[in-house]
Amino acid sequence: MANLYFYGTLRHVPLLEIVLGHSVDATALIPAILPEFQAYWAQGEAFPLLAEAPGEAAPGLIATGLSDEDIARLDYYEGGFGYDLRPVVAKTNQGSEDVLVWWSCGGQWARGAVWELAEWQAKWASVNCRAAAEMMGYYGRKTPEEVVAMYPMIQARAASWVMAQNETPVLSLSGLGREAVTQVTLERPYAEYFAVETHELKFRRFDGSDSEVVRRSAFVSTDAALVLPYDPVRDRVLLIEQFRMGPWARGDHSPWQLEPIAGRVDAGESPEACARREALEEAGLALSRLELISGSYPTPGCSNEFFHNFIGLADLPDTIVGVGGEQSEQEDIRSHLISFDDLMLMLETQKLRILPLVMAVLWLARHRERLRAGS
C-alpha cells in the first residue's frame, strides 16, 4: 500500500483521526517536504490546494501503514471536492520517498494566498473537525458528491456548535450544564439543507438521580442574525415581506409575513457581520450602529436554531423601499417603511405574527428615547 502525503488540513491529527475513525500512532506520521510545490488557500474556502511552485517546498507529513479502509475513508473525505491522488516525490531526513498526494484535478478552486497550518488551526480547526464528524457519519450512506453538495450547511452547523462552545456559559437557575447529560447514541435520519438528529441520552433529574435513557429528536439548523432597521431621526423602521414556508405548512391564510431582516450566520462570519450583509442583500441598506437585543432560542423544545437579535440604526429615506433578495436563492423580498406609532398599533392589533419582530418592537419601545436622543 502506497504512503500518502498530507500537506494541508490532514496534518492536524485530531481531524485525521476523525476521518480515519481511529487514533493515529504518531510514529506513523513522518515529517517531510514536497519540493517544487506550495500549498495555497482555495479562495473563499477553509482548506488548501496544492500547486507547482518552482523553488518552494510544501511542508507536510508522510502517512505510513494505512489500511485499505483508511484509504477508502480518506478518499470519501477528499474525493467529493474534486481531489484525486497523484504520485510525487517527497523528501525526509532519510532521503526521497515515493508518495501519493491529494491533487485538485478539476481546476474548480481559484488559488489564494499561501496557506499556513497555524493560521488554519487558529480560525478553522474546530469548525472543520466538527464538520468532518458529520461528514464521516454519512460514510456508506451518501455519496461524496451528495455530502459536498450539503457541505455549506454542514460547515455552518459546525460553526454554530463551535460558537456555542466558545460562549460564556449562561446556566439556568438549577446550575445544571452539559456535564449532567450522557449521550448514548446519535443518528441523522434526515439531512439535506437542514438536518434532523435523533439522540438517545440520559439527563440529571432535579432530585439528583439520572433519568432513564430517553429518545429525543431535534431539527438542526444554524445560528441566525436578525436585525430591525430603525431611523431615530425619522422615527420609523423598515420591515421586509416575503413568502415563508412555516406559515404555509401550518395552513395560515397569509404565507407572506412581515419580518425583521434575517439570515443564517455563515461559517467564519460573526453575527454582526451577518446582520450587515443581510441588510445589504435584502434591502440595499447600510447599517450604522448595531444594538444587541438578545441571543436566544426561539423553539428550544425541538430545534437548536439560535437567534442573534439586533436593532440596526440606519438612514431610512422614502427611496430605500423596493424589492430585493438573492436571485440565486429564489428570494423575492419587498421592504416597507413603518412609523413607530403605526408599528405599535400593528403590535397592539395582533398584526405582527413573527415572534422575533414582536420582541424587537418591545425592545425598541423601551429604548426609543435613548436612541433618538443620541442621534
From TrEMBL:
Gene3D superfamilies, per database record: Gamma-glutamyl cyclotransferase-like (3.10.490.10), Nucleoside Triphosphate Pyrophosphohydrolase (3.90.79.10)
Nudix hydrolase domain segment(s): 220-360
Record SUPFAM superfamilies: Gamma-glutamyl cyclotransferase-like (SSF110857), Nudix (SSF55811)
Pfam families per record: GGACT, NUDIX
Keyword Magnesium: yes
UniProt xrefs under InterPro entries: AIG2-like_dom (IPR009288), GGCT-like (IPR013024), GGCT-like_sf (IPR036568), NDP_pyrophosphatase (IPR004385), NUDIX_hydrolase-like_dom_sf (IPR015797), NUDIX_hydrolase_CS (IPR020084), NUDIX_hydrolase_dom (IPR000086)
Gene Ontology molecular function, alphabetical: hydrolase activity, acting on acid anhydrides, in phosphorus-containing anhydrides; metal ion binding
Record keywords: Hydrolase, Magnesium, Metal-binding
Cofactor: Mg(2+)
Motif Nudix box mapped to chain: 263-285
Annotated Mg(2+) binding sites: 262, 278, 282, 331
Record bears the keyword Hydrolase: yes
NCBIfam families in alphabetical order: nudix-type nucleoside diphosphatase, YffH/AdpP family (TIGR00052)
Designated name of the protein: Nudix-type nucleoside diphosphatase, YffH/AdpP family
Protein's organism: Thalassovita taeanensis
